[in-house]
Amino acid sequence: MAPGLKRFTDVAGDGTPRLDDAAGEELMCVERAASVALGSRAPEPPGTLFITTRRVIWLSEAEKGKGYAVDFLDITLHAVSRDPEAYPSPCLYTQIEAEADSDEEDGDFDSEANGDSQLPKISEMRIILADAAQ
């Protein structure tokens, strides 16, 4: 499977992500009213962040069926960022292993216009929690 960020739509009837039970994946943490900012784009409207034993999954509250997931092994760096010069909101900054020849930084990424083909080229994701103290 290719590395990087992927669209996630495998949601159960109760709105939680379907986990890979056969591989022992378990839900570890749920954070409501969390936003994600992909690359240099503005944050998505708030959704729910699910942290499992294998992945980070974000599901939109505003747009049902919209979500993103990244395997932990594809996250190459993470840090808490509170510097308003780096980003206007406190966030968890992550670098994601992206496909080679990534041109996500040129600002031309549009998930709706370009479809899922651009997602693996995203090399940064910021997770913004409703309660920055967490």
UniProtKB/TrEMBL annotation:
Compositionally biased region (Acidic residues): 99-113
An annotated GO cellular component: plasma membrane
Annotated spans, Disordered: 99-120
Cell compartment(s), UniProt: Cytoplasm; Nucleus
Record has NADP as a keyword: no
Gene3D superfamilies: Pleckstrin-homology domain (PH domain)/Phosphotyrosine-binding domain (PTB) (2.30.29.30)
GO terms under biological process: cell volume homeostasis; chloride transport; spliceosomal snRNP assembly
Keywords: Cytoplasm, Nucleus
Pfam families listed in its UniProt record: Voldacs (PF03517)
InterPro entries in the record: ICln, ICln/Lot5/Saf5, PH-like_dom_sf
Family per record: Belongs to the pICln (TC 1.A.47) family.
PANTHER family in the cross-refs: CHLORIDE CONDUCTANCE REGULATORY PROTEIN ICLN (PTHR21399), NUCLEOTIDE-SENSITIVE CHLORIDE CONDUCTANCE REGULATOR FAMILY PROTEIN, EXPRESSED (PTHR21399:SF2)
Protein name: Chloride conductance regulatory protein ICln
